[in-house]
Structure formats: structure tokens, C-alpha cells
Amino acid sequence: MGLLALALQLLYLTGPELTAASRYYQCSGISNSLPRLSEASFDDLWTLQSAGVINSVDLVEPAPKAYIQRTHEVNHLLRAVSEINPDALKIAASRDAERAAGFVRGPLHGIPILVKDNIATCDETNTTAGSFALLGARPMYEATVVRKLRDAGAVILGKATMGEWAQFRSRIANSSHGWSAYGGQTVGAFYPQQDPHGSSSGSAVAVSVGLAAGALATETSGSIVNPAEKNGLVGIKPTLGLTSRYMVIPISIRQDSIGPVAQTVKDAAYVLSAIAGPDKHDNWTSAQPFIKLPDYVQACNYSAFKGARLGIPRNGINYFISESTKPIMAAFASAIRVIEQAGAHIQDEANFRSFDVPAFSRNSSIVLDTDFASGLSNYLSNLASNPSNLHKIQDLIDFTKHDPREGFPDRNVSVKILV
Fold this sequence. Notes:
Blueprint: H1 3-12, H2 42-50, H3 56-60, H4 67-78, E1 81-84, H5 88-100, E2 112-116, E3 138-139, H6 144-151, E4 155-160, H7 164-167, E5 179-180, E6 184-185, H8 201-208, E7 214-219, H9 225-230, E8 234-235, E9 257-262, H10 265-275, E10 309-311, H11 314-318, H12 326-341, E11 345-347, H13 357-380, E12 383-385, H14 393-402, H15 415-418
Parallel strand pairs: 2-4, 2-7, 10-11
Antiparallel strand pairs: 1-4, 3-12, 5-6, 7-9, 8-9
């Protein structure tokens, strides 16, 4: 077996196929070992490409059983990927040619990344937010965060499934995390029919089983951090204004944020470094307090906590504690001890002056409902093609109620939105 074939085989194998005894294979002349595809970090992939063991095409193309082949084999069970980008192989070949010519864009060069299905791309994949209403619609412009990923050398592998309209289609009992009419029901990989949480369900599940090295996700209220936690990953919701929301199908301009889901903190930092920064198309990014972005990757070391002051708002945590959260809180306490030992000052009981969850939920619903209606109309106005002729929220409601593929009324729409 050739070195390249062996490298790809070991990268691809997961679960029982790869025993503890063969967890790593030391390649002759290569200082690194080969992890499972589901555990390969950006640094792993970077080192293997730099050493000439694999290239970006090897990671993408179906034949060597890398990311796309892995998706074909398990996606019918997990429904984590809605579409594979037909241009992925061509992009990977272009990145390999650049590397061969001595031009390497950075740590994301040749790395396959999935994009949540509410983030607009100017390629052959659809941007649907999980709804058939936007199938075939084409944006006039690409999302700034996607353009930045391309500029950083990433290979846009395809679209990740999501809760329809970022879990905002319905907030009543017949909704479920990770379900959309277009993508179906996403499930987690850790046990049968696992709730993947959402709305960035596909982004998290796909990365958790090695269908991509990382993914972009969006959050209004928990849609990055919750599925990341439930699928054993790192998810970062950036501070509002750190990453651009331009050409991302919105819920609320006041809460939406775009961030990474990845296997490790460092991998997430690589993606965040690539997509962060000001954008003239999103005025909220003009509030960034720095001229030069911080080096998030450089901060991924033990000494970075020295001198940091971290507060723990116990009244914001205790409200949600139950018997089922005991293991989570034990892990949280352990992590706090590690951070403190690394030199951080921990201010416990740094409580919110007021923490009224019912009042927050009522007020948040008013804001989100209003913002969604106006934000959706703005997004629809930036479509180059709009086959369903959608221009306002009532058009979407009418489509959802009358197109049988949308599953109405078994899958309802929010009564508040209808009003």
C-alpha cells in the first residue's frame, strides 16, 4: 500500500474500524501521526498537506473516501448536509495549484468547510434556510463571512442542514430541533435519534463525525453553543458586531451572530480569525474597538489566562440547574479550577442586577418577531432570482401553508408570526 493511500485510509476510518492499537500510524519520514477523519484538526491537515502526504483534492474527492465519500455513506442516517458543492473539487484543485506554486493563503488553505444553509453563497448550492420557498433562489451577493473564508483559502464543501428558518418557523410543540422541510430531521450521532439541538444542527453533527473539518453556524439565542455542546464540539458565538451578518438570512439584527463550530478551540479560533472584522455592509461591525484584530489563535495557550478577570453570574446559571445538569456543572467547576490555576482571577457571584426569565422571553419575542419581518424582506430584496416570488413575511407564510412539501399543519408556523 502506498503512503498516500495509507494516509487517506487511516484518516477516513472511524469508530470500530480503527482499533486502539492502530489509532495512529507513524509514517516514515513524517513527524506527525494520522488521526481519524472525525478527529483531524486543522493543524493535522495543514501538516499533512505541507509534507506532501495528502493534498486538498484528496480530502474532498469521493474516490479516496475522504469528506464527500464519508457524507455519502452516513448522511442518510444523520441528515447533517443538505447539499454538496459541485465546485468543491475544482476549488480544492485550485488551492493545490497555489500551494505547488509557493502561494499559501494561511492556515485554512485547502481546508474543507461546511456553511449553514442560511448563509448565502454564490455557487451552485441553494441557500434555503431549510425551506422549499427559497429553493432555486439565487442571491445577488455572497455573504461576507463566506467571501472571507474563500480569501483565506478554505474549500466551501457544501451546506449544512438546520432547523427551518433558524428554528423560528414554529415555537410550539410540533416543532423539533434540526428539522426542516428541505433538509429533513437531523439527528446526532452519539445515540439513536439523538436530539442534535439547533438551529445549527447540521453544522455540529457534520463536524462531530468528520463530514467537514469545520463549519460556519449562526446564533440568535443558543443556536451555536447548544448544538456544539450536545455534539461534543467547540462553538463560538462572537460578540455582536465582530462578524458580519451581510447576506445571512436573519432573525434579528439585534441578536444574530455568525461563528464557527469545530473540533477544538484552536480550530474554532482559526475560523474566527478568518471571518472577523469590519464590513461596510453591516454597520454593527463598525463598533469594533480595535484597528487590528486580536490574534485568537495565538491566545490558545495556557498562559493567555494570566491576569484575566472572569465573572460567574450565578443567578443566571442557577435558574437552569436541575438534576440532569449535574454532570455539566461538575465539568464547569472543573474547567473554572483549571482557568484559575492558569492565572485568571475568578469573581464568583458576579450576578445580574435583574434576571427575570419570563419577562425576558416576552420582550425577546416582541423584538425577534418584529426584526424577522423586516430583516427577511431586506434579504429577499437582494435575490437575483426569486422563483417563489417572496417579498414579505406573509408571502412566506402563504407558501408554507399551501406547499405540501412544507408539512403544514403537522409542522405548524408560529402563531405570533401569523398575527
